[in-house]
């Protein structure tokens, strides 16, 4: 086997190997020439209501603003003058301003709007000996850089933008950003939680409505509690969480629901750390997260999620368009689905194939890969697909491959034929195996041997795999804030179904916040990390055609409530779906290279 020639070291999903992309990009140009424009942004003229991905917040949360406020420029000049004649008290001490002095407004200045970022630079690397508070504040600084200091009357005499009654309400994520800026200000003033509780509403919150002010204060308390947990100050954290419990509710606005879920996760982390219950008990509570995309199973709430929230349909139908374009004149198609769930997307594939007047397909075979506990659900999915195919008189076969562990997956289990065009689809599946690298490596080697015509990978576009608790907490808080805001917009008419979905989201939050080590099963990483990992298996990223991208925009138009807030953007050749500028999902397409082009990459150790 060709794989025997390569000995891979374990891949580090917490960092991207240096020097990978320049070599891979050169190889891609030599290997594949994709027709059409590859790297241009979507335009309103070409794709309808599709907004630029960096419209409000910048491309990714790990980026920060390069241009600081004049206040901090003056402060830095004063600091430089002080450094020329340092006092003994400051000679060996780094203040908060030394770390994060460029992005937030000065203390006691009002904040009331979120502005577009003008410049984005790479984040500063934290020193290896930085404290938990330093790391915590740096991430808040990076995320909160969209908050801009305002003058007393920046919009002329009308003052409409300053009026909470006339301006648009802040989104859930924007409230978290304001809370992050406020938290930095409190930290700069060395305020403790007692001062914060005694004076909850009087600190730089002018211009916000009463509800927004309460929400900012609530988010502030949550951030303070997480920081205390990072310091292992569990008693102080518990007091802050008790305050959160008084305010937050599962049945209130999105911000309160997010805080409620994260406060629960922090409490479980405290309980586990203090021995109030064993880690295995916590693992049992959140195990369902590893079974699929946010724990969604074949139930009414899951189907309602598919119908009301645009992400799944955009990814599914864009994938189907890419499949049809890549099978060419093949008469037989074999789709291997690594996480089929309800399988509703494959009914759309059948319809699309049946409508083709030329190159009609002789047979479609779908093989679903799953674990033994999923047997009943997958068999029910097969029965529904088979019934649908018979109603259309469409040639179709469904097969399920069961394994107890992904390390047991073998090439021969899929029973592929030489006259079949093989396609592999992985939707929110690979992330569940990051914690079990031997399983992930085995599965990828099997797929490599199958040599599919195309492999489509849908994943969560977020960085939730950091070994550092505070990093994961901040990343997850902004991610789920955007998602809860999305659910509120798309799904405000069915509170019961929305609550079921958010309860499953809560399991994911507990995995990220309360778990450590191997107990964290599902881990999300961004597309750059997947690119580095896939390069180990001679995989080449291919772009989506203009037809596929147009298909994505047409699907989005079917969701009027979401069309103005859901964002579609290209990251290289990958399609990224987001909500009000926050990345949530990625969809990428891959092919496996030929042997003769890969020999130059043997020398690289990833």
From TrEMBL:
Q: Where, subcellularly, is it found?
A: Nucleus
For whether the record's keyword set contains Transmembrane, the answer is: no
Q: Residues annotated as region Leucine repeat II (LRII)?
A: 380-412
Identify the keywords attached in UniProt to this record, alphabetized.
Nucleus, Transcription, Transcription regulation
Q: What Gene Ontology terms describe where this protein resides (cellular component)?
A: nucleus
Q: Where is this region: SAW?
A: 514-591
Per the Swiss-Prot or TrEMBL record, what residue ranges does the short sequence motif VHIID cover?
A: 333-337
Q: Which family does it belong to?
A: Belongs to the GRAS family.
- Name the record gives this protein: DELLA protein
Native source species: Turnera subulata
């Amino acid at each position: 086997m060709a794989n025997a020639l390569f000995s891979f070291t374990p891949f580090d999903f917490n960092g991207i190997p240096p020097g990978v992309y320049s070599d891979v990009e050169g190889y891609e140009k030599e290997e594949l020439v994709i027709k059409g424009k590859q790297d241009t942004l979507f335009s309103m003229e070409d794709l309808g209501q599709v907004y630029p991905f960096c419209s409000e917040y910048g491309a990714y949360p790990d980026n920060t603003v390069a241009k600081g406020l004049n206040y901090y420029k003056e402060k830095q000049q004063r600091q430089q003058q002080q450094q020329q004649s340092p006092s003994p008290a400051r000679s060996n001490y780094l203040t908060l301003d030394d770390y994060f002095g460029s992005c937030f407004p000065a203390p006691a200045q009002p904040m009331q709007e979120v502005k577009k970022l003008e410049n984005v630079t790479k984040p500063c690397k934290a020193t290896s000996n930085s404290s938990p508070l330093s790391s915590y504040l740096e991430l808040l600084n990076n995320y909160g850089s969209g908050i801009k200091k305002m003058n007393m009357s920046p919009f002329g005499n009308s003052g409409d933008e300053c009026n909470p009654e006339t301006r648009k309400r802040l989104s859930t994520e924007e409230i978290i950003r304001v809370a992050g800026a406020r938290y930095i200000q409190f930290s700069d003033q060395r305020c403790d939680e007692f001062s914060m509780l005694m004076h909850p509403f009087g600190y730089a919150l002018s211009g916000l409505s009463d509800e927004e002010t309460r929400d900012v204060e609530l988010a502030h308390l949550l951030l303070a509690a997480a920081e205390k947990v990072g310091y292992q100050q569990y008693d102080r954290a518990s007091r802050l969480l008790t305050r959160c419990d008084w305010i937050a509710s599962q049945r209130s606005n999105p911000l309160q629901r997010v805080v409620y879920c994260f406060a629960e996760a922090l409490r479980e982390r405290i309980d586990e750390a203090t021995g109030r219950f064993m880690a295995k008990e916590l693992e049992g509570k959140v195990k369902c997260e590893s079974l699929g995309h946010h724990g969604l199973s074949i139930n009414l709430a899951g189907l309602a999620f598919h119908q009301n929230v645009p992400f799944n349909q955009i990814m599914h139908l864009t994938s189907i368009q890419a499949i049809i374009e890549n099978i060419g004149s093949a008469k037989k198609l074999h789709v291997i689905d690594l996480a089929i769930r309800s399988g509703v997307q494959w009914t759309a594939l059948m319809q699309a194939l049946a409508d083709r007047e030329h190159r009609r397909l002789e047979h479609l075979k779908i093989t679903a890969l799953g674990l033994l506990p999923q047997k009943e659900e997958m068999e029910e999915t097969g029965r529904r697909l088979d019934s649908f195919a018979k109603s259309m008189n469409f040639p179709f076969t469904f097969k399920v491959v069961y394994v107890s562990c992904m390390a047991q997956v073998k090439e021969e289990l899929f029973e592929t034929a030489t006259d079949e065009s093989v396609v592999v689809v992985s939707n929110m599946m690979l992330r569940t195996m990051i914690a079990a690298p031997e399983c992930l490596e085995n599965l990828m080697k099997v797929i490599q041997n199958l040599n599919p015509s195309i492999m489509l990978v849908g994943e969560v576009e977020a960085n939730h795999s950091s070994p550092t608790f505070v990093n994961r907490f901040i990343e997850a808080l902004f991610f789920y804030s955007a998602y809860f805001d999305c659910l509120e917009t798309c799904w405000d008419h069915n509170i019961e179904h929305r609550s079921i979905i958010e309860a499953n989201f809560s399991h994911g939050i507990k995995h990220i916040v309360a778990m450590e080590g191997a107990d964290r099963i599902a881990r999300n990483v961004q597309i750059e990390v997947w690119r580095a990992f896939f390069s180990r298996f001679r995989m080449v990223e291919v772009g989506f055609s203009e037809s596929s991208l147009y298909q994505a925009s047409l699907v989005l138009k079917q969701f009027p409530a979401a069309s103005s807030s859901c964002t579609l953007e290209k990251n290289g050749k990958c399609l990224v779906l987001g909500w009000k500028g926050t990345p949530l999902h990625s969809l990428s397409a891959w092919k496996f290279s030929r042997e003769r082009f890969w020999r130059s990459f043997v020398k690289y150790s990833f």
